[in-house]
């Protein structure tokens, strides 16, 4: 009942990502990204969007995001 859009860019010495989890209807559940905004966060540029709330976040991998989603929906592998 939900979708995950994953985008990662790798170049020597550089990585950028956005993992956008949304409902089937398109409403944001959580987005982890490193877009260079929200400069006031200690973890800039890394942050997470949960609804209208922006929180600090350490860099995350797709594997970590999938594990978090699995935890939140209550399934295990």
Low-pLDDT regions: none
What overall form do the CA principal axes indicate? globular
Estimated radius of gyration: 13 Å
The percentage helix is 10-25%
Distance between the termini: 18 Å
Q: Give me the count of strands.
A: 5
Compute the average pLDDT.
94
Tally of individual helices = 1
H-E order: EEEEEH
Strand order of the largest sheet: 1-2-3-4-5
Helix and strand composition category = alpha+beta
Largest sheet: 5 strands, antiparallel
The percentage of residues in β strands lies in 35-45%
Structural description of this entry:
This protein has 77 residues and is of the alpha+beta class. It contains 1 helix and 5 strands; from the N terminus they run βββββα. Strands 1-2-3-4-5 form a 5-stranded antiparallel beta sheet, covered by helices on one side. The mean pLDDT is 94.
Task: Show the helix and strand layout.
Elements: E1 2-11, E2 14-23, E3 28-33, E4 47-50, E5 53-56, H1 62-73
Antiparallel strand pairs: 1-2, 2-3, 3-4, 4-5
Give the structure's gist in a few sentences:
The chain is an alpha+beta fold and 77 residues long. The protein is 16% helix and 44% strand. The chain contains one helix and five strands.
